[in-house]
């Protein structure tokens, strides 16, 4: 029986090739988008699920409660050992400090090779918590001795070629000689940790006294503490007990800590603690993929129900010959299955074709081989079954209930065949989804343009940021600045720690104001720069003056937000007041107030900051250049820089690129919404094109009569189009509050946001109307220009 269903279904599809093609193309795009979304979601859900006992691995985080709550994926350096000594909740506790772009120098037979790689300073027990096996398959990582390292296969290849790397040495950051004691298998892309080398924790002291100490005085976001908890522990109860540490170690601090324990499975999805992606984003992408599939299914239903009046004779004959409703229903389900199967194969092909571009946009590592697994096959089979049921059942019921007498006498109307009101409802649903996606694309793009092109309070264009080693002497630095400045394309130059904005090197610390014994209850952002800092970044003084460079720091600049946070209104009121920052890092009087500037992205408020000349903090040169001669200017900078630092690698980037990187997630979100909006509209247009063919045939006689009675082409084209424009208008009314609600919720993530103007909704509806007009104009004009004699002869 099933074989017969398929045979008849195949004949029926071949008979109506045009409509079958429309259905297959629409469904294939729906399947392709759904598969890409599935792969995207599956990729992110796989993060860190490969570790043994992953359900018992946790990270300790800190909520810093001041005037606002800051979230740090870290704890004070002394936390790990204290927790191990005081509690028995964990089997293993280990510390790790991640550092990006450390310099590796390898000497082989007199030749020197240099490269940069990401480093983790880790305790040996770290590898008893996480499953990062050596190439011999064991997880016994020998990192107990100082100056020893484990490196990944890829880094070993880059450093030592095909030779055995075990017991080979390299120099790290031109300081310590490190010996390789093992080679790790390359870490999966779906790993929280993406270090290229793991250095013994005892080596850290050469690179950071604070992080290698047992201090409770501060937090550095590069230090992480992980634990393999014993089974069946109550995390809530442990967190409550950890509050004793606040009184024990931080009783005199206004920065009140709350120590939190985060499951490994949550880390990737928690943006508060620098997670990779927000779980809300996965839900949004999943819903978009689902709605596109719904649009494709709606196309199928609309075209199928519209065809029902033209398949009525076939149904009548079958019923007269003995077919019952059940046979007719399954006959149509078989047709739907065949169309769905063809569409699924084509959708998988489209997915594979688009996968490289998809990987590029979202920085993924999906491959053809990676998708051929049981989960993927189960997903696409479920998808096929769902679409077959969703798209085939309602048209199947309509066809099965057609009265054979009316069908054979060709007296079947749209009302008799059913589905007319349903079809309009489904078309409106299509338009609603398309309009909401278009509005979302416009709002996200508008917010991105607002964030990137707004006045951030500092100059960012044409500023080259160049790293400098932390052991440079002031006389060297001044000489380098002078030589770089001799090039006519170099306009300004400053040495600094933490440029304005870009979210780089954020360092919040405590401040005592006006000789008060207690610290203020807000976090003060550390900025350090020489006398040219303000000029190079175009920062404006609104009260007082800039500082003078001296041997010791005794003059300090603050911003307007600092003035507000200390409870003053007039910037002049803080001039001459004393500040003590970070227990003496900078100590002196306030001599000037700079205008506020955005120190991070628009999702955060402007922070109180201070600027002072602290040479031992300088990590970068900021060089303003003439972009017309950018290549020659950068070549000159590289030449002079390399002359001073021959043992380092010259690297640079532009400050405006750093600012743009802050919105990389939003840019990717915009790309996906924009692409899927286009696909949704295209699928909808396919369905509209199919419907207009039936519409024109249905009104053939009416059009002919109107032409005989003097109807103009313009009038007849309007007749054909007016129904669709009415549906779009209704869809616009429905879509407007839906889109407004969801985009308002999305914009709540930003402290500084664009407005959702009325014209956005009008534009979205106008775009859909314009695209619909283009889609149906050919058939409408064809119907309007057809000879009325021919139209009136049509049965």
Summarize this structure briefly:
The protein has 25 helices and 22 strands. It is of the alpha+beta class. The longest helix has 38 residues, at 325-362.
Give a structural overview.
Helix content is 48%, strand content 18%. It is an alpha+beta fold. The strands form two sheets. Strands 11, 12, 13, 14, 15, 16, 17, 18, 19, 20, 21 and 22 form a twelve-stranded mixed sheet that branches. Strands 3-4-8-5-7-6 form a six-stranded mixed β-barrel. Strand 18 (578-581) and strand 19 (586-594) form a beta hairpin. The model is unreliable at 405-409 (pLDDT under 50).
Outline the secondary-structure elements.
Layout: H1 2-15, H2 17-45, E1 57-65, E2 69-72, H3 79-86, E3 90-108, E4 111-122, H4 126-129, E5 148-152, H5 153-160, E6 169-172, E7 176-184, E8 197-200, E9 223-229, H6 235-242, H7 244-249, E10 256-263, H8 264-267, H9 279-307, H10 312-320, H11 325-362, H12 374-400, H13 404-408, H14 414-417, H15 420-453, E11 463-467, H16 474-485, E12 490-497, E13 508-509, E14 511-513, E15 524-529, H17 533-537, E16 541-544, E17 555-559, H18 560-565, E18 578-581, E19 586-594, E20 609-612, E21 620-625, H19 630-644, E22 652-654, H20 655-661, H21 664-698, H22 700-708, H23 713-747, H24 758-785, H25 788-792
Parallel strand pairs: 4-8, 5-7, 15-20, 17-19
Antiparallel strand pairs: 1-2, 1-9, 1-10, 3-4, 3-6, 3-9, 5-8, 6-7, 11-21, 11-22, 12-15, 12-21, 13-15, 14-18, 16-19, 17-20, 18-19
Helix pairs in contact: 1-11, 2-9, 2-11, 2-12, 2-21, 9-12, 9-15, 9-21, 11-12, 15-21, 15-23, 15-24, 16-19, 21-24, 23-24
């Amino acid at each position: 029986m099933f074989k017969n269903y398929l045979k008849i279904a195949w004949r029926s599809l071949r008979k109506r090739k045009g409509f079958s093609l429309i259905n297959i193309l629409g469904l294939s795009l729906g399947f392709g988008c759904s598969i890409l979304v599935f792969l995207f979601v599956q990729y992110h859900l796989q993060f860190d699920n490969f570790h043994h006992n992953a359900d018992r691995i946790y990270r300790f985080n800190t909520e810093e409660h001041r005037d606002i709550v800051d979230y740090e994926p870290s704890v004070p350096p002394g936390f790990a050992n204290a927790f191990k000594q005081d509690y028995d909740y964990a089997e293993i506790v280990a510390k790790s400090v991640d550092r990006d772009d450390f310099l590796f120098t390898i000497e082989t037979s007199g030749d020197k090779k240099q490269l940069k790689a990401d480093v983790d300073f880790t305790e040996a027990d770290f590898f008893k918590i996480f499953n990062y096996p050596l190439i011999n398959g064991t997880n016994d990582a020998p990192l107990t001795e100082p100056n020893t390292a484990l490196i990944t296969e890829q880094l070993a290849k880059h450093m030592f070629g095909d030779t055995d790397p075990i017991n080979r040495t390299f120099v790290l950051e031109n300081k310590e000689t490190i010996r390789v004691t093992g080679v790790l298998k390359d870490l999966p892309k779906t790993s929280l940790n993406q270090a290229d080398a793991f250095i013994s924790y005892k080596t850290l002291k050469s690179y950071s006294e604070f992080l290698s100490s047992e201090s409770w005085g501060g937090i550095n976001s590069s230090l992480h503490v992980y634990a393999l908890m014993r089974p069946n522990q109550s995390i809530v109860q442990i967190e409550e007990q950890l509050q004793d540490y606040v009184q024990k170690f931080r009783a005199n601090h206004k920065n009140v800590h709350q120590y939190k324990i985060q499951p490994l499975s949550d880390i990737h999805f928690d943006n508060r603690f620098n997670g990779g992606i927000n779980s809300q984003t996965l839900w949004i992408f999943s819903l978009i993929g689902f709605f596109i599939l719904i649009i494709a299914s709606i196309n199928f239903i609309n075209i199928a129900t519209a065809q029902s009046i033209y398949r009525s004779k076939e149904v009548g004959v079958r019923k007269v010959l003995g077919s019952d409703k059940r046979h007719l229903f399954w006959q149509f389900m078989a047709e739907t299955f065949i169309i769905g199967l063809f569409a699924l194969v084509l959708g998988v092909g489209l997915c594979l074709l688009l996968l490289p571009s998809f990987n590029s946009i979202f920085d993924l590592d999906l491959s053809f081989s990676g998708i051929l697994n049981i989960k993927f096959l189960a997903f696409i089979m479920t998808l096929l079954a769902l679409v077959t049921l969703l798209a085939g059942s309602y048209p199947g019921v309509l066809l099965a209930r057609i009265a054979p007498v009316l069908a054979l006498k060709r007296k079947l109307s749209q009302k008799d065949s059913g589905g007319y009101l349903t079809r309009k409802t489904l078309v409106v649903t299509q338009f609603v989804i398309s309009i909401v996606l278009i509005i979302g694309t416009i709002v996200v793009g508008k917010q991105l343009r607002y964030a990137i092109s707004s006045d951030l309070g500092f100059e960012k264009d044409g500023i080259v940021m160049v790293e400098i080693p932390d052991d440079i002497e002031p006389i060297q630095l001044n000489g380098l600045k002078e030589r770089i400045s001799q090039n006519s394309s170099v306009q300004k130059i400053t040495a600094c720690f933490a440029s304005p904005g870009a979210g780089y090197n954020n360092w919040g610390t405590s401040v005592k104001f006006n000789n008060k014994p207690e610290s203020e209850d807000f976090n003060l952002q550390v900025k350090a720069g020489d006398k040219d800092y303000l000029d190079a970044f175009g920062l404006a003084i609104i009260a007082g003056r800039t500082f003078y460079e001296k041997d010791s720091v005794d003059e300090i600049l603050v911003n307007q937000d600092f003035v507000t946070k200390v409870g003053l209104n007039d910037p002049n009121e803080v001039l001459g007041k004393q500040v003590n920052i970070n227990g003496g890092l900078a100590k002196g009087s306030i001599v000037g107030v700079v205008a506020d500037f955005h120190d991070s992205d628009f999702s955060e408020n402007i922070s109180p900051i201070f600027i002072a000349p602290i040479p031992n903090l300088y990590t970068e040169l900021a060089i303003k250049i003439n972009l017309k001669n950018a290549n020659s200017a950068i070549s000159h900078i590289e030449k002079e820089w390399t002359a001073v630092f021959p043992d380092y690698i010259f690297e640079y980037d532009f400050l405006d690129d750093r600012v743009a990187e802050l919105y990389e997630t939003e840019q990717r979100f915009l790309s996906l919404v924009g692409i899927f909006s286009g696909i949704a509209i295209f699928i909808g247009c396919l369905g509209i094109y199919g419907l207009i063919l039936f519409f024109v045939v249905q009104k053939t006689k009416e059009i002919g009569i109107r032409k005989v009675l003097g109807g103009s082409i313009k009038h007849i084209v309007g007749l054909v189009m007016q129904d669709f424009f009415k549906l779009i208008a209704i869809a616009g009314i429905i879509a407007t509050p839906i889109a407004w609600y969801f985009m308002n919720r999305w914009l709540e993530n930003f402290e500084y946001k664009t407005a959702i103007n009325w014209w956005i909704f009008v534009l979205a509806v106008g775009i859909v109307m314009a695209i619909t007009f283009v889609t149906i104009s050919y058939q409408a004009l064809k119907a309007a220009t057809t000879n009325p004699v021919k139209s009136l002869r049509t049965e």
